C-alpha cells in the first residue's frame, strides 16, 4: 500500500519544516520506505493496521513538538497485486523515453 500524507500543524505560524522533519523522523523510526516531496510525503506500509499505528505516532509527535491542532490530507493507493513507489515512478519514466 502506498500512502501520501500532508501533515499541517495549525496554530504554529507560517514555517512548518520542523514539524515535517518530525514526521520524517517517525517514518525513519518505524523503518518504512518513504519519499519526501514538496507538498507531502509518500511511504509504503503493509496494511491499514500498520498505517493506523504510524498515523497515531505522527499525531502524537506533532503534539509533543508543540502543535495545538493537526490537520491531515491522506491519499492511499492499495492494489490487490501490491505496488511499490519506485515501480510507479519507473512506469512513467519509461513512457517518457
UniProtKB/TrEMBL annotation:
Matches recorded under InterPro entries: MTH1187/YkoF-like, Thiamine_BP, UPF0045_domain
Cellular component terms per the entry's GO annotation: cytosol
Domain Thiamine-binding protein: from-to ranges: 3-93
UniProt cross-references to SUPFAM superfamilies, sorted A to Z: MTH1187/YkoF-like
Gene3D superfamilies for the chain: 3.30.70.930
Superkingdom as given in the UniProt entry: Archaea
Pfam families registered for this protein in UniProt: Thiamine_BP
Stated family: Belongs to the UPF0045 family.
PANTHER family, sorted: UPF0045 PROTEIN ECM15
Full protein name: Thiamine-binding protein domain-containing protein
Species: Archaeoglobus fulgidus
Amino acid at each position: 500500500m502506498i500512502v501520501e500524507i500532508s501533515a499541517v500543524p495549525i496554530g504554529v505560524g507560517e514555517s512548518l519544516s520542523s514539524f515535517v522533519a518530525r514526521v520524517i523522523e517517525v517514518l525513519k523510526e518505524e523503518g518504512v520506505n518513504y519519499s519526501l516531496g514538496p507538498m507531502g510525503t509518500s511511504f509504503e506500509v503493509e496494511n491499514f493496521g500498520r498505517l493506523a499505528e504510524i498515523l497515531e505516532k505522527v499525531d502524537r509527535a506533532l503534539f509533543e513538538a508543540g502543535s495545538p491542532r493537526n490537520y491531515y490530507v491522506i491519499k492511499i493507493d492499495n492494489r490487490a497485486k501490491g505496488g511499490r513507489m519506485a515501480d510507479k515512478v519507473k512506469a512513467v519514466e519509461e513512457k517518457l523515453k
